[in-house]
Each structure stands twice: as structure tokens, then as C-alpha cells.
Amino acid sequence: MTAAVNALFQPFQLGSLQLPSRVVMAPMTRSFSPNGVPTADVVEYYRRRAASGVGLIVTEGTTVNHPAANGYAHVPRFYGEDALACWKKVVDAVHAAGGKIVPQLWHVGNVRRQGTEPQPEVPAYGPMEKRKDDQVVVRGMTRQDIQDVIAAFAQAARDAKAIGMDGVEIHGAHGYLIDQFFWEGSNQRTDEYGGSLANRSRFAVELVAAVRAAVGPDYPIIFRFSQWKQQDYTARLVTTPEQLGEFLAPLSAAGVDIFHCSTRRFWEPEFEGSELNLAGWTRQLTSKPTITVGSVGLDGEFLQFMVKTDKVAQPAKIEGLLERLNRQEFDLVAVGRALICDPDWALKVREGRMQEILPFSREALKTLA
Description:
The structure is a single chain. By secondary structure, this protein is of the alpha/beta class. It contains twelve helices and 13 strands. It has an eight-stranded parallel beta barrel with strand order 3-4-5-9-10-11-12-13, surrounded by five helices. Strand 11 (258-262), helix 9 and strand 12 (290-293) form a beta-alpha-beta unit. Helix 8 (241-254) crosses helix 9.
């Protein structure tokens, strides 16, 4: 193992969180949990990645206990005795393999379509009401609705701690509920949760604070955020480092320990005049550890594979990534599709067997290999 590669396999410690490597499995919706309950295949799917040297697994998005949290079929939930009992099996398997694991806690917000399980009659919830054909398709959230969702996240965090999860990740990215409050395009409220970016961030800040109160001072909280949205890949929540600092400071003060900075390509600079990516800027502005992500280990970024295609993403060199990690631009590296197609990706990188890494195609999404 070269000195550069060795940086990826150094241990990382933050309080009670001790990771054997800097490799993180990125959260990726897989939809293999009928009725929201992870199966034995899901247990083995996560165990294999931990056994190959992934230091921290962030699970696919798991829905919190709110009637409108879910937007897709067969995604796992993080509530109910049946689902939590199966997540406990995942935790035990990952720990036995030497890894750590956190659930990504998720509410899809206004992208939910009516008819989605487990309560098909429930409309979507979001910052603003939306009507179609004189019917409410998105319920504009009241203050009580906001408190109900916050309570659901806090309870999910308590449950995560109770079953032995090593922390939690709050999904505040990609145009889902928390991000919908951040984004001016989807949040034009006139109360204290709308208007300025500080007001639009209030929901997230209160939610993080409630999770912190629920789990205590030493339990790791990761917060994932993004500039881009599903609805607009060119969107920018902030356009300067100063604005980014103003956005992050209240979240950091509320209890975020690690920021997971979602980008489509990790090598792209976030602002003009600096090579730092979003994770690099976030680390510099908050002094908190950060996770970088975005097409790590592959030569084609994920949007090419969101539609039916015969394209194949080939393994890519990671020297540039390792240089940034060695410079301490960020602390941890999240790997997505490369770990879907090849559960042994981390082991092969560590042993210098790059030529053996498997390419990624849409076929890999059909199974839990």
C-alpha cells in the first residue's frame, strides 16, 4: 500500500465514533425492503461492505414515523418493532465485520405522490400548499406539522441509539423536505420559517437541536446537505464562502458533528478563486469534520445512469482524491455506485488491485450483490 493510499485507511476518531478507515459508504436508495422492513439480503449487503474495509456505512434513506415521510415503494422505515428488529440485525452484522453504521433519517416532503405506502391516502407535506384540479396535493405545513416532523426525527434518533447504531445522519439535501425549507424556490412562507436564509434554515436548526437533546451530548450527528436539487441541478443555495459560513454556523451550533457535503463530482471547486470543493470549504468554515462525495472511483457521474442506458462507468484513478485527503481538505470519503457494483472496492484499493475493480452499469441496481 502506497503512502497516498494509506491515508484512506487511517483510523478516524471523533468522540465516541471510532472508524477503522476513512472510507464511507454513501447512502443510496435500493428499494429492497418490502413493507419497509429490511430483509436478510439487506443485512448481508451491508455486512459485506463492512467486511471489505468500509469504515462507516450510511444506510439508504430510512423514513421517519410521519404519515407523509415516504415517497417510494419498498424503501425501509426506521420505526415499528418489525423494522427496528431487522435494523438491529444489520447493526450486529456490520459490527461483527469490524465496521460502523448510521441510519440516514429521511422525509421526502413535497415530492411524495399520493398513493405511496404505507398510508396511500395521505398527501405530500411541504413548506407551501399546492393544489391541482382544486385538490390539495401538497399540504402546506402548519407550525404543529413542523413540530410533529421534528418529534419523529428525534424519536428515530433515540431508536437508533437504542439498537446500537453508531450515530445518525439527517438528510437535508437533494430537494427533500428539509432542503425544501432551505430553498427559496420552494419556501415562500411569510412566518418565522420563511423569508431570509436564516429563517428558512430554522426548521433544520430546530430539528438538529431536538435530535441532539434526544441522544445526548456525545452521540454523533451527521448532516447531509447539497447545493444542487433533484429539480434543478444548477441550483445554488449560496454563492459565496461568506454565505456558506452564515448558513452552516447555526447548524453547527445546534449539534451537527460532521457535515456530509453532497456534490456530483468531488473534484469540482465550489467557488471561484479556490480549488476547495464543498467539503473543503465547509471544513474550513466550521472546523468540523467533513465527508466528500461525488463520482469517487468511477469515470462517469451518476446522472448518466438515472435514465435507461447501456453506458458503463469504468473504474477511475483516485490519485487526485488522495492528494486532497492528504492535504486534509476533508476527513472522510463517501463512495457510492462503485460500492454497489463491487462490495470489495475498499479491499481492492487497499491491496493495489485497481485492475480488478468492477465497472458500474444499471444492471447492478437490480440486485443486492
